[in-house]
């Protein structure tokens, strides 16, 4: 099972980073192309423990729907989302936040099992793991850009 770990430092307070990371609209805005958007369950606002969201996206030319539930949350230090239905056999994402000098360290740990047995494992090695890692990095960079904006920039969003 591939595990992708990504850390990023953000020049913003931990509570700001935590709330932005669980904001449904920002998740869609901060996601790289192809865009993802919430189509059912929680479609706006801040995700809480027990909330479910169904995401629609297009990855690798395939339209996908993924239903995920927030299974753990300790504000403002971590939350976990788990896929309950979707194209993967499984995935779990742990979002961790730590106060550091000058801001926050946000760590994303994404573990997944590809569908399609041996063919899925081959896809992991050939391209899927790199694709998912790049997706996580670009989304974290988008979140950082918003978190580090000044108030006048945020008002223009």
From TrEMBL:
Q: Which Pfam families match?
A: Polyketide_cyc2
What CDD domains does UniProt report for this protein, alphabetically?
Answer: SRPBCC_3 (cd07820)
What UniProt keywords are attached to this protein's entry?
Cell cycle, Cell division
Q: Which domain of life is it from?
A: Bacteria
**Which GO BP terms sit in this record?**
cell division
What InterPro entries has UniProt attached to this entry? Polyketide_cyclase/dehydratase, START-like_dom_sf
Q: What is this protein called?
A: Cell division protein
Tell me the organism: Planococcus lenghuensis
């Amino acid at each position: 099972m591939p595990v992708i770990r990504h850390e990023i430092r953000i020049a913003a307070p931990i509570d700001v980073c935590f709330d932005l990371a669980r904001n449904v609209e920002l998740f869609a805005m901060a996601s790289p192309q192809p865009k993802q958007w919430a189509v059912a369950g929680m479609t706006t606002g801040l995700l809480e423990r027990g909330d479910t969201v169904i995401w629609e996206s297009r990855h690798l030319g395939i339209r996908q729907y993924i239903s995920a539930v927030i299974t753990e949350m300790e504000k403002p230090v971590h939350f976990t989302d788990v896929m309950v239905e979707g194209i993967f056999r499984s995935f779990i994402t742990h979002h961790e936040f730590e106060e550091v000098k000058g801001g926050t360290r946000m760590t994303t740990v994404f573990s997944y099992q590809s569908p399609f047995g041996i063919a899925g494992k081959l896809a992991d090695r050939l391209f899927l793991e790199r694709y998912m890692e790049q997706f996580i990095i670009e989304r974290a960079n988008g979140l950082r850009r918003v978190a580090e904006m000044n108030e006048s920039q945020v008002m223009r969003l």
